[in-house]
Amino acid sequence: MQTSIVCAAVLAFAIPAASAEQLDIMNSGGYTAAYLALKPRYEAASGDTLVTAWGPSMGKSPEAIPNRLARGEPADVVIMVGYALDQLIAQGKVDPASRTELADSRIGMVVRAGHALPDISTVEALKATLLGADSIAYSDSASGVYIERELLKKLDIEAAVKPKAHMVQKTPVAMQVAEGKYELGFQQVSEILPVRGATFVARIPEPVQSVTRFAAGIPVQARHPEAARKLLRFLAGPEARGAVAASGLDPLPNN
């Protein structure tokens, strides 16, 4: 029964080849693994082609989605951290009616493959692990901003840890850890799991966890808004849940 429902849902997005569109998508790191799994399925079912630009939801790098939009790069759909999307909506750059919630993301820790797995099963264990580490890295997107501005203060270890902490731009944190540049890395779990040479340790404890909701929207300058809405319905629908969960994200109850 479930298979037939999923098939029917996917077929509902199928459109005649004559009306197929090329959609420009901007996608941020945390949703990448789920998107890559869903992209070929959607293209096969709809006939549309998804051309993807990659970048963080925020930050100073030229690849960051707000900076791409500011330069006038084309986008029919943006997929990013929800509160960063809300900023674009407030600036009049994304249609507020198009805002679609996709998944929740939690922060995890990574070490280089082959290294012992530190204990972060409790808040006190996490605190001790951070204090004992030689170097720590986190991203310049939502997870890293939370760690730098809030988590270290909550644990009351900001003064001790800040000097050995590094915010990494563009490159996945787990990749830097895999190369031996940092002892510990923190990023959204969905960005850690695909990286070879690095081992996912665990999510940070729930009492100090930060849950980031990923959402998508349609820029007001989108060239194919109707086709974009079909894509958003697919990404937020039940047929996407399996890929979302497998990527390390948490599907939303209503999707």
From TrEMBL:
Sections of the chain in a coiled coil: none
Keyword Signal recorded: yes
GO BP terms: molybdate ion transport
Keyword Iron recorded: no
Keywords tagged on the record: Signal
Span of the signal peptide: 1-20
Alphabetical list of SUPFAM superfamilies matching this protein: Periplasmic binding protein-like II
GO-annotated molecular function: molybdate ion binding
Pfam families for the chain: SBP_bac_11
Stored InterPro entries: ModA/WtpA
Source organism, top-level taxon: Bacteria
Protein name in the entry: Solute-binding protein
Organism: Duganella vulcania
Lineage, uppermost ranks: Bacteria, Pseudomonadati, Pseudomonadota, Betaproteobacteria, Burkholderiales
